Amino acid sequence: ADITLNDIEKLEVLGHGNGGTVYKVRHKRTSAIYALKVVHNSSDPISCRQVRREMDILRRTDSPYVVKLHGFFEKPSGDVAILLEYMDLGTLDTLLKNNGTFSESQLAAVARQVLNGLSYLHANKIIHRDIKPSNLLVNRDMEVKISDFGVSKVMCRTLDACNSYVGTCAYMSPERFDPDRYGGNYDGYAADIWSLGLTLFELYVGHFPFLSEGQRPDWATLMCAICFSDPPNLPESASDEFQSFMECCLKKESNERWTAAQLLTHPFLRQ
Ligand code: ATP
Ligand code: MG
């Protein structure tokens, strides 16, 4: 049976995203725990649009690597809320902050799951466009799931270009800034792979790749670094397999970048 807002009680705040608040909630009758993302229309129409889009996309997805949608609520006031599968360990970003950097075998496990998710999404013509540590959720079984589809896009035609400035700029790929130079027949899917590469890089070294530790990110420095410098190199400590995997993710030319399906066969994931 469908869950209504009256059936659930708020337990605590899990976090704030842009424009919305995520609560840990309990279904009164079954005691099942969920996450409820609430956006108030009055405070922020853009976030409302994003949460609707997220709902729209999650409704079309059914994968163990994508966070599950359990309900959608809309008040007459225009406030919207979506009920999501609860991921009890939070995001990869909080795990990094609390537990420190990830080992290669942990990263291989993360990469395998996110790539399974991306390969599922891409096969269904969905581009996430905001892959980063704070949008990858983890539970106590160390399952990693893709979340936060607020700026994602469903491709209508396969070669529909989708080069709009959405998502978090830091994780944006070179062809999103400069499609003529790095794009070829840029279709958008490869941008998710670039962002995954930077995400794994950050989880390994502990800070965002194009910046040195503690450096404050600013848009111009980042854009120059992403477009004009070589892709970042992993430290010497990284294995050959990991180095090679990273190179396949961080090819500046989007046509040369490996697809999710190709990366799933990479030797790095065998460990
Ligand atoms: P942004 O994407 O703007 O950087 P964000 O990812 O933090 O922000 P949200 O996606 O709205 O924004 O989520 C806010 C926080 O709520 C997340 O960082 C996470 O800690 C928590 N959260 C979101 N969804 C869930 C979930 N399904 N289970 C557990 N915690 C969640
Ligand atoms: Mg997010």
From TrEMBL:
Pfam families: Pkinase. It comes from the Eukaryota. The keyword Magnesium does not apply. GO terms for molecular function: ATP binding; MAP kinase kinase activity; protein serine/threonine kinase activity. GO terms for biological process: response to other organism; response to stress. This is mitogen-activated protein kinase kinase. It catalyses: L-seryl-[protein] + ATP = O-phospho-L-seryl-[protein] + ADP + H(+); L-tyrosyl-[protein] + ATP = O-phospho-L-tyrosyl-[protein] + ADP + H(+); L-threonyl-[protein] + ATP = O-phospho-L-threonyl-[protein] + ADP + H(+). Belongs to the protein kinase superfamily. STE Ser/Thr protein kinase family. MAP kinase kinase subfamily. The keyword S-adenosyl-L-methionine does not apply. InterPro entries: Kinase-like_dom_sf (IPR011009), Prot_kinase_dom (IPR000719), Protein_kinase_ATP_BS (IPR017441), Ser/Thr_kinase_AS (IPR008271). It comes from Acacia crassicarpa. It is an enzyme of class 2 (transferase). ATP binds at K37. Residues 8-269 form the Protein kinase domain. PROSITE patterns: PROTEIN_KINASE_ATP, PROTEIN_KINASE_DOM, PROTEIN_KINASE_ST.
